[in-house]
């Protein structure tokens, strides 16, 4: 969205990469074009805010930082008549074509926010309508899955896992594919209605088995990307959880596989922890998440620039869905970048959470 903001901005602006952009009304002044430092962002706070903030750089030129829907825009190369006049009259003369009032910048920013909010509402409505149309597909998928399970149940073996291992490879692939599709369709329900993450009564769930099943389902997809996926740890606890916990496992593992380096490994670890809680970590090797992005990764439709470079696919909804499900279970997903290589920004990206046994999850 940042490129859209730059295109619609009537004032000159500067990108994080220190690129100067002309506005469609005001252009970059000579004082900024000749600046060798172009460290405009150093004068603006890194904390995301919904307010327009004013700064003055070392050359007595005004900067306005505007934050809209998690995206930041920095207007530069202007002379604010309300704040700069008493500081440098020479600048006022040299920037006579770039004089602005903070009130005008505020008005433009406010209208942009209203416009993007309206666009977001329209997208949200269209998304919900599309998801409602997926209901029939989900019903058909569930029917295929139940029939495949019925076939598996007749195979030799004491446990379901044994029976699946004894099945024809094509049938095993079908089971995994349909199960994965059904899990992905469950994501659409949460997008349409976040409250559905807490639907049903919480029941005892073997968390290790949930994640182990999802690891098995992702084996083929991971192999296609030249990524290994392994399961570690041991857990016998069965804390209460909603059915949506399966979707949480899907999202975290899918995210790890999608953004892993070629030849990398995704390691899913589930262990029993103190007081009956279960500790879950999903670790992969890829671009580290840092800076402002750390505050935004769980926001709806947010994708880091590195994520966009690695793959064009992705809606920026995965980690948002994960956070919704985590909230329903009263847990918090933590992110940590370990063993960062400073030259490339590659790190071990670790998402983790602790799930304690709480049979009254659906009670506030």
In a nutshell, what does this entry contain?
The protein is of the alpha+beta class. Helix content is 40%, strand content 20%.
Describe the model.
Keywords: Kinase, Membrane, Phosphoprotein, Transferase, Transmembrane, Transmembrane helix. This is histidine kinase. One of its GO terms (molecular function) is protein histidine kinase activity. By secondary structure, the protein is an alpha+beta fold. The protein is built from 11 helices and 13 strands. It has a 5-stranded mixed sheet, covered by helices on one side. A 4-stranded mixed sheet has the order 3-4-5-6. A two-stranded antiparallel ribbon has the order 1-2. Strand 5, helix 3 and strand 6 form a beta-alpha-beta unit. Helix 7 (169-192) crosses helix 8 (207-224), helix 8 runs parallel beside helix 9 (245-258) and helix 9 runs antiparallel to helix 11. The longest helix is centred in the N-terminal third of the chain and has 32 residues, at 102-133.
Separation of the first and last Cα atoms = 37 Å
Percent in strands:
15-25%
- Outline: elongated
Order of helices and strands: HEEHEEEHEHHHHEHEEHEEHHEE
- Uncertain runs: none
Number of helices: 11
Tally of DSSP β-strands: 13
Share in helix: 40-55%
| Radius of gyration from the alpha-carbon trace, in angstroms | 25 Å
- What does the largest sheet look like? 5 strands, mixed
Mean pLDDT over the residues: 83
Major sheet: order of its strands?
8-10-11-13-12
| Structural classification | alpha+beta
Enzyme class: transferase
Pfam families: HATPase_c
Domain Histidine kinase: 132-359
Catalytic activity: ATP + protein L-histidine = ADP + protein N-phospho-L-histidine
């Amino acid at each position: 969205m940042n490129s859209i903001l730059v295109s619609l901005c009537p004032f000159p602006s500067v990108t994080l990469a220190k690129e100067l952009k002309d506005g469609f009304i005001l252009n970059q002044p000579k004082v900024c074009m000749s600046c060798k430092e172009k460290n405009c962002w150093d004068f603006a706070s890194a904390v995301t805010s919904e307010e327009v903030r004013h700064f003055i750089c070392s050359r007595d030129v005004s900067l306005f930082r505007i934050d809209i829907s998690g995206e930041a825009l920095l207007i530069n190369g202007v002379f604010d008549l309300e704040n700069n006049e008493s500081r440098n009259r020479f600048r006022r003369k040299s920037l006579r074509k770039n004089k602005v009032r903070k009130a005008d910048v505020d008005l433009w920013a406010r209208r942009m926010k209203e416009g993007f909010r309206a666009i977001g509402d329209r997208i949200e409505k269209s998304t919900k309508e599309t998801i409602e149309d997926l209901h029939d597909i989900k019903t058909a998928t569930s029917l295929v899955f139940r029939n495949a399970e019925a076939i598996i149940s007749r195979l030799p073996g004491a446990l379901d896992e044994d029976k699946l291992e004894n099945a024809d490879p094509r049938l095993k692939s079908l089971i995994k594919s349909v199960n994965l599709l059904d899990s992905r369709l469950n994501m659409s329900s949460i997008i349409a209605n976040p409250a559905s993450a807490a639907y049903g009564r919480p029941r005892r769930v073997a968390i290790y088995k949930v994640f182990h099943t999802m690891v098995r389902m992702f084996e083929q997809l991971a192999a296609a990307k030249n990524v290994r996926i392994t399961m570690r740890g041991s857990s016998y606890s069965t804390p209460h959880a909603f059915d949506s916990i399966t979707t949480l496992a899907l999202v975290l593992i899918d995210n790890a596989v999608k953004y892993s380096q070629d030849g990398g490994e995704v390691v899913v670890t589930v262990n029993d922890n103190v007081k009956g809680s279960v500790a879950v970590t999903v670790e992969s090797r890829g671009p580290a998440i840092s800076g402002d992005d750390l505050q935004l990764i769980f926001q709806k439709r947010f994708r880091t620039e590195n994520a966009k470079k690695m793959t064009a696919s992705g809606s920026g909804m995965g980690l948002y869905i994960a956070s919704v499900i985590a909230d329903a279970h009263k847990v918090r997903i933590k992110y940590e970048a370990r063993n960062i290589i400073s030259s490339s920004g590659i790190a071990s990206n670790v998402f983790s959470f602790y799930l304690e046994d709480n049979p009254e999850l659906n009670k506030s």
